[in-house]
Amino acid sequence: MSTRSRALRLLDDLAARLAPTTSPRPRSDNPFAGLFPWELRSRASLDVPRRAHGVDTQYAAELLDFAGVCAFSRAIDGALAAQCRHAADSLAGEVRAAVRAHSLDPDDPVQSFRFDGAYQRGPGRVDLRDHEAMGRPPFDHESLRGEAAWMPLVTRVLGEGARLLWRGVVVTEPNTPEQPFHSDGPLVSKQEWRKRGVAVGETAAAPPHSLIVFVPLVRCDSRGEVRPTSFLPGSHHQVTANALQAETVEAGCSSGAGMPAVIDAEPGDAIVFDMRTHHAGGANTSRERRSVLYFTYALPWYDAEMQRELLGSAGLVQRGAAPAPKLTPAPPT
């Protein structure tokens, strides 16, 4: 990390600690009265309370609409989180060895690798999206599938027709810097929404087409060596995203109204966010890998082909690119 980046990070940390705590009022008729989304910068302000029957999905949906992100504790059992972490770490090691066997550097900052089920997400990060191991224990546990604690919220926001689009795990190597802020999906135009029978006014915000669930498998602490993911609340709406993106000056750092929400998390917690919400994976300065399970849910008509088309229209990916090749295992040593 550069001296300038380190100084900006320290200023961000100091500003976050000195800023007054701002939190919604979950039990009130208008929980966000008098608040701006970017004022919700702490885990407490983005936390969803639990009720006797589970997570308060009504409030969670309201918080998602307002801020674009929410969190709740103990989404999966700690023992299962530990099993998934061990499996993810082993899998990441196998993938990195296989990438090297293809004469590629898995940490190359310029030339990223892309295989079926294994993608590089910048130096030190591998995304095991829909890797075949995701269908085997421990990743096939029912509490990570149909009985997941977050499914009532997903259904409430996206409807009964919501489907799992992708699932995977992102593994960050030791001594990896934070990511730049980014969103995981493109915007769907209001014209496209109207084609789908959803009336969206010219000045109204479009509804969500996809939700992403992060489940950290290690403790992520904003004051520790394994830093959590940061979010820019409100950035799921385009007008706010434009303003906040202009404020972002360094990877993982921001200024002014764009001060990020840094969501500390324990293994097995869940962070649910709109695919359009800007976020940045935290730095890992520890000696161990940082693993995060993720699940992407979408409306029935939003699929991988539509995402590629929208990304291609925005010039973010090359249209007509060949499918990613299979990654053959490294030969035994």
From TrEMBL:
SUPFAM superfamilies according to UniProt: Clavaminate synthase-like (SSF51197)
Signal peptide feature range: none
InterPro entries linked to this entry: Fungal_Metabolite_Diox, Phytyl_CoA_dOase-like
Listed name of the protein: Phytanoyl-CoA dioxygenase
Alphabetical list of Gene3D superfamilies matching this protein: q2cbj1_9rhob like domain
